[in-house]
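Figure 2 data, in text form.
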Amino acid sequence: MDRINRKILALFQHDTRRIANSIGAEVGLSAAAVQRRLKRLRLSGAIRAEIALLDGRAVGIPITCIVMLTMVSRPAPALSLERFRRRMRDLPDVQQCYQVTGPSDMVLVVCTGSMEEYGEFARKWFESSEDIARYETFVVVDRVKVGLSLPVARDELETSHMPHKGKISKRPR
């Protein structure tokens, strides 16, 4: 992954509709070269998907909950963990699911149309599961930052958007 690919990804991940000419102008390549690089990045798996970011309120899914789960200790924990993972992957209400370290085993982001829907979801998938020892739900009241972007070209982006520090050079008159 070279510096130019990182710059392309940094720009592209925030707006996948951005045309190659525009990206090329910022990274110093032609539109065709940017398109070739994007194609290679897709084939290599560096670009996993190009998705639309929907507004939950606009589509009738205004409730987001963060759920911390603790699994039941069993003689074969890997089996119950894999069973739980499979279930969560298949549920459209589960936006994200992470196995984590610390006092909880899993962290989920669950999106629903109402608190009543979330209650039904929790009863069905957490409370009635023999694999879950306990769960704790945090209801999101303010989306301060939402996204999946990665800081792939942090140095280039930070310096290009920061005012110059140091000596002020005078232009010749």
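Caption note: Strands lie at 63-71, 94-99, 106-112, 132-139.
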